[in-house]
Design a protein that fits this description.
This protein is of the alpha/beta class and 641 residues long. It has two domains: 15-103, no CATH class; 177-458 and 532-610, Amidase signature (AS) enzymes, CATH 3.90.1300. It has 21 helices and 15 strands. The chain has an eleven-stranded mixed beta sheet, sandwiched between helices. Helix 6 crosses helix 19, helix 16 (465-480) packs across helix 19 (511-531) and helix 16 crosses helix 20. The longest helix has 26 residues, at 107-132. It binds 2-acetamido-2-deoxy-beta-D-glucopyranose (6 copies).
Length: 641
Amino acid sequence: MLQATFPCTKTHVSPFFFILFTLLLLHPLSSLSTEPPQYSATTTCSREMVTRCKKIWEILCCTSTTTTPQIHSRSLISCGEFGSKEMSEALPLKSALQLFDADFFSNSKVKELPKDAKEFNIPVFRANRKMVASENGGLHNPSVLVFNSEWGMNEVPHKNKKFSYPSPSDINVPEKEEDMAFMSVIELGYLIKTKKITSQKLTEIFLHRLKRYNHTLEAVVTCTEDVAYTQAKEADKLLDQGVYLGPLHGIPYGLKDIISVPQYKTTWGSKTFQNQVLDMEAWVYKRLKSAGAVLIAKLVTGSLAYDDIWFGGRTRNPWNIEEFSTGSSAGPAASTSAGMVPFAIGSETAGSMTYPAARCGVTAIRPTFGTVGRTGVMSISESLDKLGPFCRNAMDCAVILDAIRGRDPDDPSSKEISLEDPFLIDITKLTVGYLEDAEMEVVDVLAAKGVNMVPFKLNYTVDSVQGILNFTMDVDMLSHFDEWQRSGQDDVYEAQDQWPLELRRARIIPAVDYLQAQRARGKLIREIRDSFTVDAFVGNVTDWEKVCMGNLVGMPVIIVPTGFKNITKPPPGGTRRRTTITTGIYAPPQHDHIALALAMAYQSVTDHHKQRPPIDDLGPNDTVPNHPSVNIPPRQWHIHV
Ligand SMILES: *[C@@H]1O[C@H](CO)[C@@H](O)[C@H](O)[C@H]1NC(C)=O
Ligand SMILES: *[C@@H]1O[C@H](CO)[C@@H](O)[C@H](O)[C@H]1NC(C)=O
Ligand SMILES: *[C@@H]1O[C@H](CO)[C@@H](O)[C@H](O)[C@H]1NC(C)=O
Ligand SMILES: *[C@@H]1O[C@H](CO)[C@@H](O)[C@H](O)[C@H]1NC(C)=O
Ligand SMILES: *[C@@H]1O[C@H](CO)[C@@H](O)[C@H](O)[C@H]1NC(C)=O
Ligand SMILES: *[C@@H]1O[C@H](CO)[C@@H](O)[C@H](O)[C@H]1NC(C)=O
């Protein structure tokens, strides 16, 4: 037994600890708690430490009297570190981690864990347990994680009926390039279809804008010029041959850089992966390619899809370049807002579309969970990750969603969701709720359009919604980045207070409490379903509780710009910089068409979505700053994911 590594030493039992150990064995426990430690003054070890040592020794040795412990620590704790109070609290955890086969954290990292566990993990364990696990056995409160034994091999992919897009008429190529850059996809598609402009010309215009404004916005990871001109030429050639692929034929766009495209880097926004090339076509890229769209850029994702900080910088908000864009779909939101792409594909795990779309003032739809296949996309959480479009307006969102939805055979969560045609919805037959925090202009406009608008409140009893979201997202993320954490690559992560901290906390969430969270999530979903007594509702889209709730339920929401405010503390002489105002239109899962139809109705008589942000024309006395002055805290405003 004495051959075993003693957990208070770096390697084997040192002479000092041999003495200490002898003391521990000789002293009755009671004397340890009352008398000062009796050892030489060459160390800083406290009485507390002695108690801890004893406890750990018991865990490692004394509890197994017949066998030598097999557990060895890679980085055991030295006596000096032992002295601190946090460390003495962390010590039992340090040894417990050996039992999880997770003894790889440095001492300083372990030191943070007890505080974090108490503050973030334990309250959620307790809340969920009380809610769903106070009764034993039975199939009540089933987990939302559902096992499907189907092998899904001989599946016949069935095609959704396409939406009936309106066709514009009498549109001409504007004189100014900028006017072209802010046209909608439907308008640009018309110019291409009628051969008033070529796809190659459009590609050139938008590539030029990407380069021009990236300097200020830090929103572009890679311009994919080669593939862009190849695809644009092909689109023009097909049209010359009389083949028209639909409204996306020849339209340039960008992809969030968590989406793989062969031959280009897929950096995930992260220093660790900034040279990664994944030689695969993501499913969503394939869909857009077959619709004739032209990939011109890989746009910024916050590092590992968290917030707006990435290895090349921090993406800014085109409406107020002193601010950051929030994230993590930072590039898609900022680039669409600034007219650098007609549309872009981003993703959301929790807030990654809603936050940047709201801040950058663009229309975006976070569709029903499972609508868009995720093969070839970096995974955070299988049950939360969703892809969706950032656009100039809701009509474009409908067009893009129509092109990218459908079952992806390699993504078991994706589904053929049969949405109704949003262009054929009679909104006067709808009853739409509005929450206390809804933007009233939207409510008034929809009421004037004949929608039955009623005050509304979501009613649910689950009070650990934000905790359930944290557990689900963080544990799932850690399972996808296990090796990254184990090998210490999290040390070079761009923002140490974000993923690195959260994923260490996730390491000590027991499997049973993770599953209780999934049962609690099931309860939340049933309560939301039962209280969703309207066809849709209007409400705040950046309120963190709603972001968590909406993502846990998997319900769609469309983010709609509804106006602007003056910035606080404008420079003397004024500025064109503005704060955007936004609201969300939420619909039940698989009713994305309702949210789209309502947003289209609102935008048909308002023009907030048509305003253009000031990027290099800020006002007489306002200049582009070198460093944004507003520091946006992570996730409360964001994420990630
Ligand atoms: C965009 O700007 C960032 C920040 O300066 C830079 O790291 C990145 O390389 C630029 N992207 C392109 C495509 O030039
Ligand atoms: C809210 O939900 C609770 C529990 O499900 C129910 O008892 C209550 O009647 C509901 N209240 C409203 C206003 O629907
Ligand atoms: C969820 O995690 C975030 C980020 O660490 C933290 O700020 C927040 O307080 C957590 N929420 C709960 C309910 O634990
Ligand atoms: C929406 O929620 C965010 C975050 O809580 C808050 O800052 C904002 O003021 C809210 N908007 C409205 C209209 O209540
Ligand atoms: C611009 O700033 C200068 C110096 O601060 C000031 O003299 C001038 O009046 C300002 N211009 C306007 C239009 O406010
Ligand atoms: C906003 O700022 C402009 C000048 O930049 C000013 O004319 C206008 O009155 C301001 N609006 C409000 C509501 O303060």
